[in-house]
């Protein structure tokens, strides 16, 4: 689904799949002329939470009957599908994935053009790669990278389990088997790593495929589904080699009122089940119920859910549907404002933001509590309603997003002034006063269908570490800084682009206690003005000239050459 802000950046997914992946859109051999400039780069920075598989039958059903074949999913593996059918499928979707994986031999101009128009990244997989290997690796990557929404990563010890993925791994370790946690429709919500003995039934479940007819008939004969829905009994199923099923333990997940929420399945692997497997499984089901109920309560009202979807979360929504529930005209003019909290006020990181860091690292280190964000959201709702009746606020992870209808504010001066005043008010609130709240204002958009894109625009600004000093800004005002940050992020994901010549200079500094790298940075920042750079370093100009000459000798770079100078500047900023 386009616009998800949690999960692993797609560029990191592609890099981690090497050597299974041979190319992705945005490389010279697969760039659609009709694509929006920068769309591939933006797509590679989009975040991936989920992956699923489709086959020709699934795709044909979507194209011919307009029937959805997948739940909301970020990355889709297209198995056995032709290029023409893949392109038609993408064009038929309302909620499009961030990217699609296809075998390299079907990637052509037709598919690349369709994907570029829709801002979907096409990832070409080596034709020799097995799909089960690709998907297994993908799911393991996403599981390892997935924190609880609204939480921050830290290394402190904790006794609670925060995600279903963590719980699946915990149950698997205790029971000594391979676990899947499913909802009441048998959709897999989380699973533990598979062993070589994973059977066909488990594989199909994880890949989003229904169990075979033979398996469903066996379940019906034994009353398995009825038992799971109505009791907390642990059901043991012996191995059935004829239908590709190994031995299993299963128990139902029930809410506080007894309603069935789903089930926990454990397939026996290379080891026998633990002696207390049934006890552990029942405890795991209780923990799963608590996590599933908590997830339901986090979006308690239809309006909250619809507002989140309008901002691009949870699969998105079309403007007409959202407008009818939120009582907004779908064709009006709207502005999106994003609010983010930075490092603690006065901290070294808050003051020194000139260095380049990845957006993913920045997201992980914001360090704001869920309580502070909820406080910020509630306060925003009050202020927004006072500013523009009908304005909406939504909390997504560590950010708050505001949607206000256009009020004829030419140039946005009234809106900017209101946001600046709001931030000053937050500086006086003790709950968030220790955090530096910042805001980014998107360019006004026509119609609710463009709200998710406006949200992406403010995210680009808030993701840029180099604009943290600006309390209120926009992409228009900060475009150079934002684009440079995104360029550095992409370069940081390609270690082969690091220039070894500067590594020689850096190692010389470390060995001899010199400051050649520091001198290069100051010299280039001063526009190659020796006196200004020397003044900034508090050294004599001749000392600086010697250092620059020494750095050029060691590296072989010629800073009088425009190409060498540009490359050196980029490399130094990337390594700061």
TrEMBL record:
UniProt cross-references to Gene3D superfamilies, sorted A to Z: PucR C-terminal helix-turn-helix domain
Domain PucR C-terminal helix-turn-helix: 516-573
Family stated for the protein in its record: Belongs to the CdaR family.
Protein name per the record: Putative transcriptional regulator, CdaR-family
UniProt cross-references to Pfam families, sorted A to Z: GGDEF_2 (PF17853), HTH_30 (PF13556)
Domain CdaR GGDEF-like per the UniProt entry, residue ranges: 320-462
